[in-house]
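B., you asked whether I could sanity-check this one before it goes into the benchmark set. Here's the sequence:
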Amino acid sequence: QVQLVESGGGLVQAGGSLRLSCAASRRTFSPYAMAWFRRAPGKEREVIAGIIRSIRSTSYADSVKGRFTISRDNVENTVYLQMNSLKPEDTAVYYCAASLGTNYESGYWGQGTQVTVSS
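And here's what the prediction gave me:
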């Protein structure tokens, strides 16, 4: 069982930055692939960034590539999402997820943190 707790959301003006954190409860954190998802009002949930286990290979959705950076600290059991050049369309609830495989739907999820970008 893994418990995930996101933090760092809030209200920011367009062009600003936020850093989201996701702290994991499990001591053996490094085997898990981690990802950030978001759900914007009226839209389906989408994956925006992922980082696999200890190899630290990352991937990004086209909508955030070049603006967002995912990273992980396997000592602190935490994954981060640095969000720069934020746009109003980035407004959403952001969730982190953990999986031992490639299917996050059957993995572990945090409760979400709200990010609101004003124009």
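One thing to flag: The longest strand covers residues 92-99. Otherwise nothing jumped out at me.
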